[in-house]
Structure formats: C-alpha cells, structure tokens
Specification:
single chain, 276 residues, alpha/beta
Length: 276
C-alpha cells in the first residue's frame, strides 16, 4: 500500500501511549478521537459506527478478491443428524427439529457443490456466505470446508445462539452490531440465495431480499426455498397472490427445491455454468 508523507495513524497511537503519566494525559479528552472507545460508542457516533461496519468487511472482501457469493440463510436451531436438538422446548419441537435435520445435510452438500465451482475461479466467484453460526449456517460453512474452500461468516452479537462455527474461514469471519448492515453485506455480492427452514431471523432475511428483487432494487438471482413442504405449510404464498397483496408474477421470483443437487442445477442452468 502506498505511503505518503504524512505520519501513519498507528504510529501516532503508539506515541500517544508513551507520554508522561499526568492528570492531563489521563483525562479522556486527551485521547486521540479514533483511539477512544468510549467516544466511538457514544450515541452521537452511531452514523460513524454504521459506516465503519459497512466499510470493514467490504475492504477485507475486496482485498481477498471475492467478487460474488452464494448465500445460505437458515435456522440456527436445526441440528446435525444424530445430534441433540438443543433448542427444543418440548417433545413436539424435539421431534420436528430432528426431522428437519435433513436440511443440515442438504445445506452442507449444496455448499460443497457451490465451493467446487468456486475453486475453479480461484475462490473469487460463488463463495459460500452464511450467518456464521450454528445449524444451517454451520452446515454451509462445513460444506465449503469439506473441499478445502473458504467461506464467509457474517456473525452478529446476540444474547444466545450466535458464536462463530468452527468451519468458517477465520479471516473471513466478521461480527456485526447492526442487523441492517449485516443484511446489506449478505446481498451486495449475492449471485444466488438459498433459504433453508428457519425462524424469524431467516424469514426476515428472506423477505428483505425478496422485497428488493420485487421492487427492482436488486437484480433477480436464483432464489431457492429448500423444503417445499415446510415453506408451504408456514407461508401461504398462493393466498398472498389470491388476496392481491402481491402480484401473481411475484411467485416466479423463487423456486422450491428439496435437494442440493436440484438447487445447484437451477443455478448452473441460470448462469450457463460448465458442468463438471
């Protein structure tokens, strides 16, 4: 990186920590503004924090050469087959979560297929991107790791559930405070979106992306809903169209799929990608 004649900021930070210890130098007012965490966390600095949270991952991904992503959304609570349904609050939930563990398998395989293609582009195109946490997110990161490919994890600070899974590429493992900025990063490079069964967070991400495509604020991309029986039992998409709250053509913005192979084939056909 080019260095001009001005003293780099890190050098001044180091110098500022080596001054004599006096009441003046101990005072918060004396701290360099960009080295003062108390100042940066003030309410008035929220616009600056928003900018920083948008800029940091963008700079790192650009420097890494990531041009496009395949985004996986899905529930943190869905277990790997054979593992405990840790989020279950009763026997009904336990039974359903264990049944939905099939989507962990499909998410892992779907990410593996995407990563095999990504490797052919030197991991610049179609890099797997998840929320970085457990459940379906872990399965996506794991599928990339299965073939030695990198994956992006967009974690967020939550009171429970969210910690980076062990399969996310460490230098592509980000942490967010603002949901809005995190969702922007999910979509800024997305060339395909795969949505697996999940809860409020998954549906929030799904509908935000669909709204952007519906309103032409985002180019259409292959939009896959894994698990037709799950989604059609949870959301009556056809009824939304029948009621007139969406257009009949809006039902064409997404595709129901049940297997990783079926989902990846739609992406291959859409972009006319070479087959292995």
């Amino acid at each position: 990186m080019h260095r001009g004649p001005l003293v780099p900021s890190p050098e001044d930070v180091e110098k500022s920590h080596k001054v004599p210890d006096t009441p003046q130098t101990r005072a918060p007012a004396y701290r360099l503004a960009f080295d003062d965490k108390d100042f940066l966390c003030r309410e008035e600095l929220r616009p600056v924090r928003l900018q920083l949270e948008l800029l940091k991952p963008e700079m790192i991904l650009s420097e890494r050469g990531v041009d496009s992503t395949v985004v996986l959304f899905g529930g943190a609570r869905i277990p790997e087959p054979g593992k405990e349904a840790w989020a279950a609050k009763n026997e009904v939930q336990k039974k359903n979560l264990e049944a939905n563990a099939q989507y962990y398998v499909e998410a892992r395989e779907f990410a593996r297929l995407a990563s095999l293609y990504s490797a052919k582009t030197y991991n610049k195109e179609m890099v797997v991107c998840t929320g970085g946490g457990p459940g379906v997110m872990e399965a996506g990161s794991r599928g990339a790791d299965d073939v030695g490919a990198p994956s992006i994890g967009l974690n967020i600070v939550l009171p429970h559930e969210q910690a980076p899974n062990e399969y996310v590429t460490p230098d592509l493992c980000f942490n967010f405070h603002y949901f809005a900025i995190r969702k922007m990063h999910f979509l800024m490079r997305a060339k395909a979106i795969a949505v697996f069964p999940g809860g409020f967070g998954t549906m929030d991400e799904m509908f935000e992306a669909l709204t952007l495509i519906q309103t032409k604020r985002m180019d259409p991309v292959p939009f896959l809903l894994f698990g037709k029986s799950f989604w059609t039992s949870i959301i009556h998409f056809d009824e939304l169209a029948r009621q007139g709250t969406i257009s009949p053509g809006d039902l064409d913005l997404f595709h129901f799929v049940d297997t990783a192979k079926e989902g990846w084939e739609l992406i291959v056909n859409h972009y006319e990608l070479p087959r292995a």
